[in-house]
Design brief:
By secondary structure, this protein is an alpha/beta fold. It is built from ten helices and ten strands. Strands 6-7-8-3-9-10 form a six-stranded mixed beta sheet, sandwiched between helices. Strand 4 and strand 5 form a beta hairpin. Helix 5 crosses helix 6. It is globular and about 55 Å long. The protein starts with a strand and ends in a 6-residue tail after the last helix.
C-alpha cells in the first residue's frame, strides 16, 4: 500500500433544494486500502457514492488517479475504473447469472456494432474472452454462482446470491476502486461472515481498493484499515476502528455508548 491517494476528494458539497447532504467533505483513499464509511441514517453516505459515480451533481473536487471525475457521466466514471454496488440490488432480473456478468464487461470491449452484426472472427474471439472472464469472476464466490446457476435468471436467486452477483458484475467492469453500499444488508450471520471474508479477498487476491458503506459494526471492525464517519453531511472522524469507536463525537452521533468497545 502506498501513500498516494487513488481517490482525492476536497470540499465535496451536494445540495438538494437547499438541503445540504454533503458539506465540504475532504476524504483521501490510498491505493490498496479498505475503508469503511459509517454514520447514522441521512448522514450522507450513499450521497457520497452517488457523487463519486456522477449520479448527482456536486461541487468541490473528486480526483481519481490524479484526474478529475467532475463533469463526467456515470459510464465515463466506470470506464475510468470506478465500480459500485447499490443498497437496493440492481440486476437484470430476466438475464442469466452469466449474462449479467458478461454484459457488464461491454464497457471494456473493442468490437463494435459491425462485429456483432456480421459475427466476425474478432467478435467471436472477444465474446469467448468475455465469457471466460465472467466464469472466472463467478468462480470467486465458490459454488454459489456456478454450475447450473450460470444459466438461471437472476430473479430466481436467493437474496444473498443476488448480492454476490451484483459484486461480481461490478468486478467485471475491471475497476481499480470498488464502492460497496451495505454489502451484507439483509443477510443472516453466516452469510455476513462469509461476505466479510470475501471483501478482504477482493483486495488481497484481485487488487481492488475498496470503500464500504456499512451499518454492521462487526463487519466494519473486521474488514477496515480505516473508518470514516459522516454525520449530517460532515466528516466528524477518520482513523482506525479503535480510535473512531472511542471518539465521543462518534459515540454521540452513531455508535452509542454500548457499542464503543
Amino acid at each position: 500500500m502506498n501513500g498516494r491517494p487513488i481517490l482525492d476528494i476536497r470540499g465535496l458539497t451536494v445540495e438538494f433544494g437547499g438541503l445540504r447532504a454533503l458539506a465540504g467533505v475532504d476524504i483521501r483513499i490510498r491505493k490498496g486500502e479498505i475503508v469503511s464509511v459509517i454514520g447514522p441514517n441521512g448522514a450522507g453516505k450513499t450521497t457520497l457514492f452517488n457523487a463519486i459515480t456522477a449520479s448527482v451533481e456536486s461541487s468541490g473536487e473528486i480526483a481519481f488517479e490524479g484526474q478529475s471525475l467532475l463533469g463526467l457521466d456515470a459510464n465515463q466514471v466506470t470506464s475510468r475504473g470506478v465500480a459500485r454496488t447499490f443498497q437496493n440490488v440492481r440486476l437484470f432480473a430476466n438475464m442469466s447469472v452469466l449474462e449479467n456478468v458478461m454484459v457488464a464487461q461491454h464497457c471494456r470491449t473493442s468490437q463494435g456494432i459491425f462485429g456483432a452484426l456480421f459475427f466476425t472472427k474478432a467478435f467471436r474471439r472477444e465474446e469467448a474472452e468475455i465469457r471466460a472472464r465472467a466464469e472466472e469472476i463467478l468462480a470467486f464466490f465458490g459454488t454459489r454462482l456456478v454450475g447450473f446457476r450460470l444459466d438461471q435468471p437472476a430473479a430466481v436467486l436467493s437474496y444473498a446470491n443476488r448480492r454476490r452477483l451484483e459484486i461480481a458484475r461490478a468486478m467485471a467492469t475491471q475497476p481499480k476502486l470498488l464502492l460497496l453500499d451495505e454489502p451484507v444488508a439483509g443477510m443472516n450471520p453466516v452469510e455476513s461472515a462469509e461476505l466479510t471474508g470475501l471483501i478482504g479477498r477482493l483486495r488481497d487476491e484481485w487488487g481492488f481498493t475498496i470503500v464500504v458503506i456499512e451499518h454492521d459494526m462487526e463487519v466494519v471492525r473486521e474488514v477496515s484499515d480505516r473508518v470514516i464517519v459522516l454525520d449530517h453531511g460532515e466528516l466528524i472522524a477518520d482513523g482506525d476502528y479503535r480510535e473512531v469507536s472511542a471518539d465521543p463525537r462518534v459515540i454521540e452521533a452513531y455508535l452509542g455508548h454500548g457499542a464503543a468497545t
